[in-house]
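User: For a reading group we're discussing how well predicted structures match intuition. Take Multiple sugar transport system permease protein. Before you show the prediction, I'll give you the sequence so everyone sees exactly what went in.
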Amino acid sequence: MSVTTPSEVDHDDTPAGREEPGSRPPTVSRRRRRLRPYTLAVPAVLLCVGILYPFFVGVSYTVFNFSAANPNPAFVGLRNFAEITTSAPFWNSVRVTGSFAVTATVVETVLGVGVALLLYRGGILGKVLERALIVPLMVAPILAAIMWKLLLLPEVGWVRPLLAGLGVTDYTGTDSPLWAFIWSVVVDAWIYTPFVAIIALAGLRSLPASPFEAAAVDGAGWWFTFRRLTLPMLWPYVFVAVIFRLMDSLKMFDIIFGLTTGGPGDSTTTLQINAYLESISYARYSRGITYMVVLWAAVYLISMVLVGYLRRLQNRTAGEAT
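Assistant: Thanks. Here is the predicted 3D structure of Multiple sugar transport system permease protein, as structure tokens, for the group to look at:
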């Protein structure tokens, strides 16, 4: 028969600071539980306010005649919209913006997919060149435009001797409307073709291997495999890059402004540049903001159409995969 001593009864094996088994953990107060969802929503609310407040303030300016020459602006309704949409500079900038956006997006998409295909099959050299793709993206667009402007100078630039060697003798830098537009597209493609290539390369590496193995067993050629397998399976990835590049090209300002300042004349004046000229150069603030609201509406509508097509494309691809 064992006898329990007082020292054994008083001994506590529970370490200091640790609760005994079976004890209830501390609970969060009911008020804190109720406030937690609202607390977590505060950053999102602040972000929305920071975005929407300036936007709606800017939209409100379009119905007044704010300008440096008019210290007491009056309500004018939709007169600013009527004036700019019936003016020749507006429609010229619409034409330039659309032409630049479509041309630059097509060029960058074709070159980007081509570069991605070369790097995908490039072995060790391809892996080395992948790292170089990001270099143009690290350069600020306005700095890239200034750098290219120096290269394109007819007197001291490097481009004129190269073109002369190819038989081009009528090169005048960016002094002609055609060359100004061409070089604006070239500079934009130099910066952003790697962006398309990176997305396309990631898409190539995610494609399943079994369809290509089956095509190789059947003796399919490279062009057939690319046209019937690679391109259809890769297109959803490439189309994401197309959406980003088209939306960004429609809002183009820094590259063209740094390279040509919208000239010669108004041959490369986009909607963004017109908005800058109206707001900063001419100090007609309401008209400048009206340009931006029109551009925003156009970009928003186009993006909704493209995103809807992308969603249908992804659903169709997922259905074919299953």
